[in-house]
Amino acid sequence: MRVSEHLSFGSLTSLIDGELDLIRCRAYCPPETYAVARPRIQAACDLSTYTLTQDLQCVGVSIGEANESAEKAKQYVAEAAATTALIRETLFAGVVSPMDRLLAQLDDVWPRGAGIALSGGEPVLPNVIRRWTAGGQANPHIDQRNSEILGDYVFRRRLGVNVYLEVPPEGGGGDLELWDALVEDELEYRARRRRDYGLNRADLDAPDWVVHPSDGDLFIFDASRVHGVRALSRGRRVTMACFLGVRGTEDPLALFA
Ligand SMILES: O=C(O)CCC(=O)C(=O)O
């Protein structure tokens, strides 16, 4: 697996061009930051659900849910500002969230900067928080590159970004599974999809790479690569997640979740 431990214009373009499989920045979220936010995040997760599966709770309506129903699409747009404020000003009150740090860093390293994607002229939700507990997993899946909700954007690549705030100990599951091949034909993928989401793990070969994140790590990978989350046997897995929509180097990166 080709991994870079640096977030830079060079590592991002290598990932986009398929010359790199993963950007992994260790300890991107300092433990002191998560210690402040952790009790508030746990309380917010206790109050949250996720429509596509009961395997996890999600703070914020995600674009994955919005793509699946008109009702969720409406909620996605209507709740974006309030959820952004909840995450930034309440859950991470007093500290800078790792996603706000990332947005500032991407704005510096990418030639045309980075910003939150707009839908109908309004910023969408730039990140969500997800929590898995023992028994939870994520089916192998890809994240479709373009979405009607972000209709004004035509992305060349969609990069998945996850900051692992808390993960089970090594051997406790919650690993990120990655399959080598990129799915370019999304229609063919949709035809193979399960009713809920993603693909049947049993229909696939074993993943090409299984990576156990450490607390605080930031991972970025191409979201058109099939990826999943191995079931947790213990502990908790709490992540902050977003996507980077990539057009070209002459356009800003667009963040959404
Ligand atoms: O939490 C992870 O490691 C992967 C999450 C995921 O499935 C995604 O980013 O689409």
Walkthrough of the structure:
- The chain has 257 residues and is an alpha+beta fold.
- It has a single domain, classed as Sandwich (Jelly Rolls).
- It has helices at 9-16, 31-46, 63-66, 70-91, 98-109, 186-192; strands at residues 3-4, 22-25, 56-59, 114-116, 118-119, 122-123, 128-133, 138-141, 157-166, 176-182, 209-211, 218-222, 225-229, 236-246, 253-256.
- Strands 1, 2, 3, 4, 7, 9, 12, 14 and 15 form a nine-stranded mixed β-sheet that branches. A four-stranded antiparallel β-sheet has the order 8-13-10-11, with no helix packed on it.
- It is globular, with a radius of gyration of 17 Å.
- The two termini are 26 Å apart.
- It binds 2-oxoglutaric acid (AKG).
- The site of 2-oxoglutaric acid has 10 residues, from strand 9, strand 13 and strand 14.
The percent range for helix content is 25-40%
Give the strand tally. Answer: 15
Head-to-tail CA distance between termini? 26 Å
**Shape by Cα distribution:** globular
Number of domains: 1
Report the average pLDDT across residues: 95
Sketch the topology as an H/E string, one letter per element. EHEHEHHHEEEEEEEHEEEEE
Quick overview of this protein structure:
The protein has helices at residues 9-16, 31-46, 63-66, 70-91, 98-109, 186-192, and strands at 3-4, 22-25, 56-59, 114-116, 118-119, 122-123, 128-133, 138-141, 157-166, 176-182, 209-211, 218-222, 225-229, 236-246, 253-256. With 257 residues, the protein is an alpha+beta fold.
